[in-house]
Amino acid sequence: MEKSPDAFRTISEVADDLDLPQHVLRFWETRFPQIKPMKRGGGRRYYRPEDVDLLKGIRHLLYDHGYTIKGVQKLLKTNGNRFVSAVASGDVATMEAIVAANSEKTLEPKVGVSDEDQIVGRPKAKPSGRFFGFGGGSDDDTPEISIGKSSVGKEDRALLQEALFDLLECKRLLDQVR
């Protein structure tokens, strides 16, 4: 007999569902204060459905997206539990709505942090321009780059720079695995 979706789950059921050892879930409780399973007599843990969703989101960010524990903590602090839960389910509309709502709440934008930085999968590196031989000035000051008889316009340069940032992010993730 299968449990109702609203039923509480034991740590062994959650660990099996997430394909993680139980000690990892206990460790995450020490690192993420948002994880608060109900504890019964004898210290047995019972996870609510929203706890399981949050754990799925944390697992997805740590293992599938290559986030560090500190990075997930920052996402939780910035965007809240619902955002991380939405990551696991792939609910992009909810994630974008939460990011938009959070950006409206802050009267002054944080220096160096944009909404794009808070969406999963975006490169962490900021454009510097040093890779393409132009200074850090505005786009209007940036000259067209000539390569032989052809030149690279602003749109092409932006696409190349975006591809470079993606490659740098891939390199960062690979370096973490090594």
TrEMBL record:
Signal peptide: none annotated. Keywords: DNA-binding. PROSITE patterns: HTH_MERR_2. InterPro entries: DNA-bd_dom_put_sf, MerR-type_HTH_dom, MerR_fam. Residues 10-78 form the HTH merR-type domain. CDD domains: HTH_MlrA-like_sg2 (cd04765). The keyword Transit peptide does not apply. This is MerR family transcriptional regulator. The lineage of its organism: Bacteria, Pseudomonadati, Pseudomonadota, Alphaproteobacteria, Hyphomicrobiales.
